[in-house]
Amino acid sequence: MKPSLVTSLIAFANGAYAHGGVYSYEIDGVHYDGYKWFDPPDNQTNLMQRRWYYWPVQDPLSENITCNYNGAAVPSAFHAPVHAGHTITANWSNNYPFDKPGEPFYCDPAMTNRTCPAGFTCDFSCMYHHWYHGHGPLTAYLARCPPSPNGCSDANPSTLSWFKIAEEGLRPNHSITDAGAWMQGDLGATVDHAAPGWTVRIPARLRAGNYLIRHEILMIELDPPQFYPECAQLAIEGDGDAEPGQEYLVKFPGAYQWSDPGIKVSGTLYYPEGRATRNYTVPGPKIWTGEF
Ligand SMILES: *[C@@H]1O[C@H](CO)[C@@H](O)[C@H](O)[C@H]1NC(C)=O
Ligand SMILES: *[C@@H]1O[C@H](CO)[C@@H](O)[C@H](O)[C@H]1NC(C)=O
Ligand SMILES: *[C@@H]1O[C@H](CO)[C@@H](O)[C@H](O)[C@H]1NC(C)=O
Ligand SMILES: *[C@@H]1O[C@H](CO)[C@@H](O)[C@H](O)[C@H]1NC(C)=O
Ligand SMILES: *[C@@H]1O[C@H](CO)[C@@H](O)[C@H](O)[C@H]1NC(C)=O
Ligand SMILES: *[C@@H]1O[C@H](CO)[C@@H](O)[C@H](O)[C@H]1NC(C)=O
Ligand SMILES: [Cu+2]
Question: What is the mean pLDDT of the segment spanning 214-221?
Answer without folding.
Answer: 97
